[in-house]
Amino acid sequence: MQKYEVVIVGAGTAGLMLARELGNQNHKVLILDRKKNLLEFSFNTLGSFIDIEKFGFTENVVAQKIDAITIYSKHVKESVKINGYTLDKRKVHEELIASLNMDFVDIKLGIHIKDIVKVDDLFTSVIDKEGNEYNAKIFVDASGTAAVLSKKIGFMPKNSKLATGIEYNVQYLGNDNEAHLMIGKDYKGGYGWIFPLKNKRAIIGFGTFDESMVKGLKANLHTILELPNIKKLVLKDNDKAEGGSIPITPVLEKFVSHNFLCVGDSVSQVNPVVGEGYKFIFESAIFASKAICQSLKNEDVNLLLQYESDWKKRFLNNYKRSKKAQERIFSTSKNDILIDIAMLLFMKLRPNYKNVKTLSGEYE
Ligand SMILES: Cc1cc2nc3c(=O)[nH]c(=O)nc-3n(C[C@H](O)[C@H](O)[C@H](O)COP(=O)(O)OP(=O)(O)OC[C@H]3O[C@@H](n4cnc5c(N)ncnc54)[C@H](O)[C@@H]3O)c2cc1C
Asked: Is the overall model pTM greater than 0.90, yes or no?
């Protein structure tokens, strides 16, 4: 008999939430991560519309409450009243780890998984770089953009496209609870953001969908920091750049194969246009956990497919629309006039609640 019912590869956003849900249902879970320290990240803050209580977090994860986002194109500026947060990523993950039911969840660090073994119609183990095998009834790839098993199974394209972002923690001269989003020619095929923190600090970032620009990302962020409207808002006082990449594949909708499934960036579950990863990936992990519980209870791997159905019902139309919006932004964002017109049509003339929906990635 296997010691574990579920092996999860990756103890990030998706893997930890899934382990929490499964552990709470008394399922034996092994979670493996190549990192030695789960609280070391390439970036440390998140903008999110998440309902922190609903997902079981405390106010401690909030780096700053956001009550307005101002969006800027070359000649148009629109403020949207919101209920959002800048989150402290480290604290979110600390609380997730602390919430794991350690009677049922084991974590092994420094384990770099490289392959999955299939015998007949079922997957039987995952294998690490040293050749060690980890057995279970169900396997999950939650390895983020590495998508180590998702790529092997063929869910995630082998050379998937990534959007990359870079950020600085800077002095902030703006309103304490106001975030800023910038789009247009100055942001060269992408967009810029400022998320407020406490104590007059903020995160300023620049991200692009244009892979040809990734090399010059830092130089671009420096140019952006010199723009007059940005200079009024932030002052760079250190050289510590943070950042990372998110997948920008076409919208994926296949996440389950036999007794194997994927959650999170390994199957591109971050919203394609607004980058809301945490809230939507947590929801996806909860869908996955429900299907896994049913599958284990009834000893029927076909019940894992319920996860795909739940995900599609909740996200598919939304993500397809977001993907189109992402492509439109990419194709027009080097043209200030088109972006100004889009801002007038889509932000200025619409009621606040519709703009909130768009910004939170919740298309109707
Ligand atoms: C610069 C940047 C800014 C972002 N801003 C926001 C934001 O403001 N708001 C928001 O909601 N989202 C944001 N996101 C998106 C969000 O961070 C991701 O969508 C989310 O973290 C993905 O979660 P995940 O669990 O799929 O992957 P991750 O959280 O990356 O976890 C993957 C885990 O798998 C491990 N792993 C990888 N390969 C292996 C392997 N071979 N063997 C074992 N372990 C492995 C990794 O070490 C890691 O711990 C941002 C992303 C980036 C890059």
From this structure: yes
